[in-house]
Specification:
There is one protein chain. The protein has 286 residues and is an alpha+beta fold. It folds into two domains: 81 residues, lambda repressor-like DNA-binding domains (434 Repressor (Amino-terminal Domain), Orthogonal Bundle); 154 residues, Beta-Lactamase (2-Layer Sandwich). It has twelve helices and eight strands. A six-stranded antiparallel beta sheet has the order 4-3-8-7-6-5. It has a two-stranded antiparallel sheet with strand order 1-2. β3 and β4 form a beta hairpin. α1 packs across α3, α2 packs across α4 and α5 runs antiparallel to α6. It is elongated, with a radius of gyration of 20 Å. The C terminus is likely disordered.
Length: 286
């Protein structure tokens, strides 16, 4: 049952349906329970808190006038500074499949009393990656690379040409017929990675960007088979182990995965020595 016409609950349901999100999917993005979303949509809860309204608006990719109306329906008024910040959100780069990133890519995230846009959060995370001496990179919930440091390029022996932020997913490298040969025990790694990817991307998997990514990946060997065989991990694993064949020999690694500010779309990853005590980069030890 939905709330009456013109209510916050009906507006919430309409925006959720427009994005193809289930109640559980929206709840996952907003950091609340599915039951809470259902109660709002049914009109059993009329006025969510300001913090909950921010979280729901971010998850629903609302900006500008749509965001203002959403807050007003919830019984809150956006401050002029916040409204102006929405209007200044950039359009963003074009992805490899020709589609621009969704409005969610530039949605604001509540971080204490301040509002931080997605692009600002990514920029700060990339700066942190560049500041660390260990190999590090930043990806979103579809595992698209958003930034990296030189140590990561050196570790994976990848040229920066063609690595424009937002164009390629880590899965493009993992399933690439030529590049995958560098990963020892590849199938075990691919299964573990897909389980985590399904977990990280489950709230976004119905978006057009996800569909375009999956269409591209299905053309790569073994992707269809493993995609059908692997279930989503129940929790986001803080680490993932891999063994990489490099020109200088075999490198055992463990990637530490950190979600930035508990935001569902920004992940910071740093590579640490795994089974060996080797130095990953000159002067950078664990």
């Amino acid at each position: 049952m939905l709330a009456p016409e013109g209510s916050f609950g009906l507006l919430l349901a309409r925006h959720r349906t427009r994005l193809g999100l289930s109640q559980a999917g929206l709840a996952g993005l907003a950091g609340c329970s599915r039951q809470y979303v259902a109660q709002l949509e049914a009109g059993r809860k009329l006025h969510p808190s300001l913090r909950s309204t921010h979280a729901l608006a971010n998850a629903l990719q609302l900006a500008g006038e749509e965001r203002r109306r959403f807050f007003a329906a919830a019984g809150h008024l956006l401050q002029p500074a916040a409204t102006a910040a929405v209007a200044r959100a950039p359009a963003g780069p074009v992805l490899a499949d020709g589609a621009g990133p969704s409005a969610a890519a530039w949605a604001e995230v509540e971080a204490g009393p301040a509002l931080v846009r997605f692009d600002e959060l990514v920029a700060m995370s990339v700066e942190a990656a560049r500041a660390t001496r260990l190999p590090a990179y930043v990806h979103d919930s579809l595992w698209r690379l958003r930034g990296w440091n030189d140590a990561a390029l050196e570790l994976f022996e990848v040229a920066p040409a063609g690595l424009a932020p937002g164009r390629l997913s880590i899965l493009d490298f993992l399933f690439d017929p030529a590049y995958r040969k560098r990963f020892l025990q590849w199938e075990a790694l691919a299964r573990a990675a897909l389980a985590q990817f399904k977990r990280d991307s489950r709230a976004r998997i119905r978006h057009p960007e996800a569909a375009a990514l999956l269409r591209r990946l299905r053309r790569l060997p073994d992707f269809r088979r493993l995609w059908r065989a692997v279930e989503a991990a129940p929790d986001g694993a803080p680490t993932l182990a891999l063994t990489l064949q490099r020109r200088g020999g075999v490198t055992h690694l463990r990637v530490l995965r950190l979600r930035v500010l508990d935001h569902p779309d920004v992940w910071f990853n740093v590579f640490l020595p795994g089974c060996s005590s080797e130095i990953l980069r000159d002067g950078a030890e664990s």
